[in-house]
Amino acid sequence: MSKTFQEQKIQEKNTIKEVSFVEKELLLNSLTQQELLKTTKDLNKTIKELTKTLKILEGHEYLMIHKSKWKLIGYNISLGMLFAIGTVLWFLLLSWFTFNFFKDSAILNQFIQNQLKSRQFNIGEKTQNTPTKPVQETELPQSLSGAKTGSGQKE
How far apart are CA 111 and CA 117, in angstroms? Predict the structure, then answer.
C-alpha cells in the first residue's frame, strides 16, 4: 500500500505542477493581452492626434501658397525684395547712429587731423594756381644707372 500511496502523491504533485504551469501560462497570456490592449489604445489615441494635426496643416496658408508655381515665385520675390529693403534701411540707420555718436568725438577728430598732417593735406587752405616746378632730372649713381664700374670694366 505504501507504494500506491507514494505513487498517488507523486501523481498529485505532477498534476499540481501541470495545473500551476498552465495557470502560469494563462496568467502570462492575460497580462500580455492587457499590455497589448493598452498599447493599442495609446496608438489609436496618437493616430487620432496626428490626424487632427495633419488636418490643421492642410488648411495652413503656407501649403496653399506652394500649390501654384506662380504664387511660389511671387512669394520668393517679395521676400527677397523685403530683405533687400530692410537691409538697406538698417545699414542707413546704423550709419546715421554711428555718425551722430562719433561726430563730436575729440579722439576721432585728433586722429583725422594726424592723418591729414601725415599725408600733407591741408583742407583749410585754398589751393593756388601756381605752376609747379618741373621735375629736374638727376643723374643716377653709376651703380644704379646700369653702367659698369671701373673694377669690372675691360679695357
Answer: 10
